[in-house]
Amino acid sequence: MILQNVQFVRSAADPSGFPKDGRPRIVFAGRSNVGKSSTINSLVGRKGFARVSASPGKTVFVNLFLAEDRLWLVDLPGYGYSKTSAREKARYSALIENYLHADMENIRRFMLIVDIRHDPTGDDRLMAEWAQSYGLPLSVVANKADKLKPSQIAGQIAAVRGGLCLPDSVPVIAFSAEKHTGRDEVIREIFSEVGYRT
Ligand code: GTP
Ligand code: MG
Q1: Ligand nearest to C-alpha 88
Q2: Low-confidence residues of the chain: pLDDT under 50
């Protein structure tokens, strides 16, 4: 299963570029370099669609894609990359915060992307807490599963769940944007909120 008919619409550098309509938003948030853009590429089945960076910090705007003319996919800049200048970091976090607050009522699924190999950071935890505190449906995508041995996956999923203090109702999905592991499950999560095509 892949998401069909997805188009890049625009990059928003400030609130004037955020979507104004009532279509549901699916947000992809996470630390820099964790694979947010790669996850979108995997879901749409097109390499190089959302731009992917060899060096962290590539997604510097809120990138907006429209799926099937009825669903916004929102690729956010990454947070927490240590080599980004303080000024740039402040700009990214202001942009992320502005976006999330401006568009909160339209967010139908908050996809928090983390690296399955590492314990979640304080920022990851803040993001997870923030989404839950506003009642947004949260799913955690534990990316880069191809970098682990299959025998390590269950333990790392438990570590991610524990590190983020997640209730059982929040799914943590072992995922690989590279190998498309977990893709069907993530697409099901997206459609569980917005309904299958009618
Ligand atoms: P920013 O836009 O900088 O916040 O990064 P991002 O979270 O969008 O990450 P991006 O998709 O640009 O990927 C960062 C790097 O991780 C790239 O070199 C990707 O090829 C690599 N990567 C992403 N997903 C996977 C995965 O599932 N497996 C492996 N092995 N590498 C991955
Ligand atoms: Mg990106």
Answers
A1: 1
A2: 198
Q: Give the pLDDT score at 198.
A: 38
In short, whether 139's Cβ falls inside 6 Å of ligand 1 is: no
Task: Report the CATH number that the domain containing residue 41 is assigned in CATH.
Answer: 3.40.50.300
CB proximity list for 52: less than 8 A, separation 6 or greater: 37, 38, 41, 58
Would you state the structure tokens that stand for residue 132, as one six-digit string?
A: 């839950």
Query: How far lies 41's CA from each of 5, 66, 160, 171, in Å?
Result: 13, 13, 23, 21
Residue-wise pLDDT tens digits, 28-45 = 999 989 999 999 999 999
Q: Tell me how far the alpha carbon of residue 55 lies from the centroid of ligand 2, in angstroms.
A: 10
User: Is the shortest distance between the CB of 180 and ligand 1 below 6 Å?
Assistant: no
Cα of 136 vs centre of ligand 1, distance in Å, is 25
For 171-198, the pLDDT digits (tens) are: 999 999 999 999 999 999 998 877 755 3
Rounded to whole angstroms, how far apart are CA atoms 133 and 147? Answer: 32
Cα gap 38→53, rounded to integer Å: 9
- pTM for the whole structure: 0.93
166 lies in some domain: yes
The domain containing residue 74 runs over which residues? 6-194
